[in-house]
Amino acid sequence: MDTSFNNQNRMRRRLVQSAAAGVAVGIMTPLCRANTFGDSLLKGAGSTFVMPLVQRWTKEYREDGVGTEFAAHNSGLDTDLWGRAALDYEAAGSLAGLQRLQARAVDFALSELPMSQKTLTRLGLIQIPIVLGGVAIVTHLQELTRPLRLDGATLVSIFRGRISRWNDPAIVALNPDVNLPDLTIKPIYRTEGSGTTYTLTRSLETQDSAWPGDVGVDALVRWPVGLPARGSSGMAQALLARTGGIGYLDAVQAASTGLNIAALANSAGQFVTPGRAAIEAAAQGAARQIALKNEPPQLVNAPGEHSYPITATVLAILNAANKKRGDRRARTFLKWALSHGQQSAFDMGYVPLPPSIVEQVRAML
């Protein structure tokens, strides 16, 4: 029995169930030591999916003066000894970010792993969307000069281990003009609790009714085959090191690898890559769902001829009670990100929230 997998899944279930039982979250040990963040005053942790954007936001917020000026007029974020708005973020993965938030080791968490309104209420949390992005399927095949085409059924078969060679007839049929190699497929998966894994498995579930029971739809699942990698950086390194590899990354970090990003068949049967326009198309018509009553948005396999099928919403999770200084600082930073940070998101290839949604979300803070 894979005790590590079972223990990790029990960990997530206890995060959700402990408040309902009215007990302390015993598994939420303070995983961040006191010096993890140095002397920073605002601490966040979680998603690696959005790490490049958060790094840019952190720089702008701390060093460019915008964050300091914004904080000075919005009650709450102190500055460090150099007059900078003090902020640090640990890209530990979505599940770990939620654990750190529950342990009061951080002031906010970022995640693509949504919680239901019932769970949020029980845990005394709120969640808000901050940006949209695509989960790219990345392959390491030197023969490819254009995006490899894959549909949902074929992708399921690859991650189940039922298709194990790159020149399998199912893949060849989708790519008739490509000379695919007789090479072993090497699936790579995330080992830690990952919101990117959740988004991918949500999509695969829609293609295979047996997937939830056999593999799972969660931040941690029991992959039938494959090689482990930790974090987005570990996934990128594993893909670069293995010819024949296939894995998943956020579209921004996937582009930086220089490897092939697959074109996936969407609900209309069109093959699309995770560009900004395709992610925006997936989000169209979902505006109410994104902000309405804190309900988790579901943007996988969204309708539309141009929609990208594995689209994720990055959520910020924070304490509902706005009593402590850390809670106020978190709200100040997130308000800044929703106003001053959306252009940076656009520039990097993420998809900002529509202005109408931004106003609704800011009102929740």
TrEMBL record:
Domain of life: Bacteria
GO CC annotations, alphabetized: ATP-binding cassette (ABC) transporter complex
Gene3D superfamilies: Periplasmic binding protein-like II
Tagged with keyword Lipid metabolism: no
Keywords linked to the UniProt accession: Phosphate transport, Transport
Role summary: Part of the ABC transporter complex PstSACB involved in phosphate import.
Family according to the record: Belongs to the PstS family.
Family matches, as PANTHER family: PHOSPHATE-BINDING PROTEIN PSTS (PTHR42996)
Oligomeric and partner information: The complex is composed of two ATP-binding proteins (PstB), two transmembrane proteins (PstC and PstA) and a solute-binding protein (PstS).
The protein's name: Phosphate-binding protein PstS
